[in-house]
Amino acid sequence: MRSIIPDERLAEIHLSNDEIARYSRHLIMPEVTLAGQRRLKAASVLCIGAGGLGSPIALYLAAAGIGRIGLVDFDIVDFSNLQRQILHGTRDVGRKKLKSARDRIRDINPNVRVDLHECFFNSSNALTITADYDIVIDGTDNFPTRYLSNDVCVFQKKPNIYGSIFRFDGQVTVFAPHLGGPCYRCLYPEPPPAGMVPTCAEGGVLGVLPGIIGMIQATEAVKLIIGAGEPLIGRLIQFDALKMTFREFKLRRDPKCPVCGLEPSITEPIDYDIFCGIPQAAEFERVLSDLPTIDVQALKARLDLQEPLVVLDVRETFEWDICHLPSSILIPLGELPSRMSELDSAAEIAILCKNGQRSAKALTLLREAGFGRIFNVTGGLQAWAEKVDPNFPTY
């Protein structure tokens, strides 16, 4: 394959003695050589997200000598990030992820220019942010951003290196219709219903998995830049860490695709929240907020007074093992319909989960079954840790 970096851009690109020493193991590879390393220095890559996938992507591209790396993120470093987001360390907790990432990248390779985009990647800024980069790498875990990054890359004829992770599974491909392959919409024409697919924060992820998937994404970027090998255009790699297996699937471009098809109907960014059902999810949350609630301070007061109150925890057993209130009972939400007989319909019941969402759904189930004295614990155990007991474990 040909490099995506045009030859004329190399005229002003030279390597210093320090860079020659730094990249010496590249320079002696016939697939890279001095010419390939100059292309890497001439290239620019935008990574959307500085988290689990963004960490190995940014670190390895910086070490490889990419001349300019852009990072898009708006979050701060949390303790729960450190299990997999190796851009950040313990001392970075509470810092902006972009500041932490910039310092780590500069330590890896001070020759790399790092551009920080501290914002939500959305329809109003996506075209502007991506315009000056050769490659876009999607390191996010939400559907609106995935569709948005796909669409702007199709509009601007840029490769979009896609990766996703969940628990022990990951997948990677390169969406590039201008190079003969499909786009994300060819594979997923419609997003799943809002809330149907859990995020890593909701379902968990093996700490090393984003390292594996992110490094594959970084590898694809390097290959596209130096013009070597066979990129994952029209091919999707699925990785199962439990079985330690890779499977390859052929992907075809959809001629009726609304973005990259023969007669595209979408030619500019749309409202991706509406497309992915986020307003519907917000409406659902509004309905849930109308349910009877009790805050964690009031719950604590009633428990201290030893008032007759059943505290029902509807999380999963493995979450219960991490932390739970001593006085609570456990019935996971999925088991609740078949185990309602274990509860007294005349009793007062305070229902809780991690953050108050599953417990609200449990409340609607119990109310439909005739339970009348039931309350949703607002904010769940996260609120308990923040407002009642700062020593309570969080996850």
Structural commentary:
With 395 residues, the chain is of the alpha/beta class. 36% of the residues lie in helices and 16% in strands. The chain has an eight-stranded mixed β-sheet, sandwiched between helices. A five-stranded parallel β-sheet has the order 9-13-12-10-11. Strand 2, helix 5 and strand 3 form a beta-alpha-beta unit. Helix 4 runs parallel beside helix 5 (97-108) and helix 4 packs parallel to helix 10 (209-226). The longest helix has 18 residues, at 209-226. The mean pLDDT is 94.
Poorly predicted spans: none
Determine the CATH topology of the largest domain.
Rossmann fold
Structural class: alpha/beta
Helix fraction bin: 25-40%
CATH class of the largest domain: Alpha Beta
The share of residues in extended strands comes to 15-25%
The average pLDDT is 94
Write down the secondary-structure element order.
HHHEHEHEHEHEEHHHEEHHEHEHEHEHEH
Superfamily (CATH H level) name of the largest domain: NAD(P)-binding Rossmann-like Domain
Could you say what the CATH architecture of the largest domain is? 3-Layer(aba) Sandwich
Oligomer: single chain
Largest sheet: 8 strands, mixed
Please give the alpha-carbon distance between the first and last residues: 45 Å
Number of DSSP E strands: 13
The order of strands across the largest sheet is: 3-2-1-4-5-6-7-8
Q: In the residues, how many domains can be counted?
A: 2
* Rg, alpha carbons: 25 Å
What is the general shape? elongated
Secondary structure tally, helices = 17
